[in-house]
Design brief:
By secondary structure, the protein is of the alpha/beta class. It is about 35% helix and about 15% strand. The chain is built from 11 helices and 14 strands. Helix 2 runs parallel beside helix 4, helix 5 packs across helix 6 and helix 9 crosses helix 10. The longest helix is centred in the first third of the chain and has 20 residues. The termini are far apart.
Length: about 350
């Protein structure tokens, strides 16, 4: 037990072997402004006696603290074995306390919390409109992270919608991930597929997409079939290379645990015990979408990703993805997960660019 004295008022705080909380008292107290019977202000100091835990929580060059500061607002300063947050408001203090608790747990379990994990936690706290002054409600469940054997790191959802998307891919045999550019549709689908294949739960992953160019014709492409379609599937390879070492990808390709399957040549196939990813599905026709969905065989799972705001077909209404949304939404066993502008996880400018185009339209 530890007494902290502030002028004429003393507070009795419970401490553990690694954590002591120092709250600056407020002039006006309310029931909502307490934590374990101690009154809160918009400042909090956390003392970590274990230097290894402190280093893991702060990250390289205090990178983790910078992510938290940019997300919650306020100012974070680390001095010695103390981490202090100021000016974040009552909700900010509570979220900061919860974040640090979870980071400590991660470090003690042997993990190195990454900025991605922190953004996922912060995203689970913030309401849909991303206001730090709103109350926290319905955080994303932590078990929605994706563990990839031999991968670089765990993959965490950065928003509630991404968490729901991951849960949909796990629960249903066919999952549609629909949203604008940069919301993680393809990245999360590839992560889930790699997790299932590398953990031997699925035999292989099959990657496909319609061969439709974005507004220009490149003409004849040299090489065999795989080389011709490779430029179109490059985004899927980029996602894989961000998740696992290249030698693992190369080995999977050699053993046909990764298969490139042009959509035009899938008719007549039955895809069993595998994960099938159809990327850029907004550029499929109705006939192609029907053909693809009826390829799903026993023990197989399919993830269909697409952005209905970027349809490159001559006529927008011919999109097989739009048709599937209106036709199949009521069928049990199919999941439709929608991502929005607030879920964009690329460069922050991407979110502003998408918002500008949405306002124009």
């Amino acid at each position: 037990m530890k007494y902290l004295d502030y002028g004429s008022t003393s507070y009795l705080l419970k401490t553990t072997n690694y954590l002591a909380l120092d709250f600056i008292p407020c002039e006006k107290y309310t029931l909502d402004n307490t934590y374990n019977g101690v009154y809160l202000d918009d400042s909090i100091t956390i003392v970590l006696d274990n230097r290894d835990v402190l280093s893991g929580v702060c990250g390289a060059n205090d990178g983790n603290l910078k992510v938290i500061e940019g997300s919650l607002g306020g100012r974070i300063a680390a001095r010695g074995n103390e981490i202090r947050l100021e000016g974040a408001g009552d909700n900010g203090v509570r979220r900061f306390k919860t974040l640090i608790d979870k980071l400590i747990t991660q470090v003690e379990e042997g993990e190195n919390p990454s900025p991605e994990y922190i953004r996922a936690l912060v995203g689970s706290f913030l309401p849909a409109e991303e206001s730090v002054d709103e109350p926290v409600d319905g955080p994303v469940k932590e078990e929605t992270f994706i563990h990839i054997p031999q991968g670089f790191r765990r993959v965490y959802p950065r928003s509630r919608n991404q968490g729901a998307y991951i849960q949909g891919m796990r629960k249903d045999d066919i999952c549609f991930g629909i949203g604008p550019a940069g919301t993680g549709k393809t990245y999360l689908a590839i992560a889930q597929a790699l997790s299932l294949v590398l953990s031997k739960k699925m035999r292989k992953m099959v990657l496909t997409r319609p061969v439709v160019e974005a507004g220009e014709s490149l003409g004849f492409l040299p090489g065999d079939l795989a080389q011709k379609i490779n430029p179109y599937l490059r985004p899927l390879h980029d996602a894989m290379e961000a998740l696992v070492p290249y030698d693992i990808i190369h080995r999977m390709e050699e053993t046909r645990a990764i298969e490139i399957a042009p959509l035009a040549y899938m008719r007549g196939r039955s895809l069993n015990n595998c994960v099938v990813i159809l990327d850029e599905a907004q550029n499929t026709t109705r006939e192609q979408m029907k053909m693809f969905l009826t390829r799903i065989g026993e023990g197989a799972r399919a993830v269909i990703t697409g952005d209905i705001t970027q349809i490159d077909l001559p006529r927008r209404n011919d999109s097989g993805l739009l048709d599937a949304i209106s036709l199949l939404s009521g069928i049990d066993g199919l999941c439709f997960s929608y991502l929005h502008t607030v879920d964009v996880v690329r460069n922050p400018l991407v979110k502003k660019i998408i918002q500008a185009y949405e306002e124009q339209s």
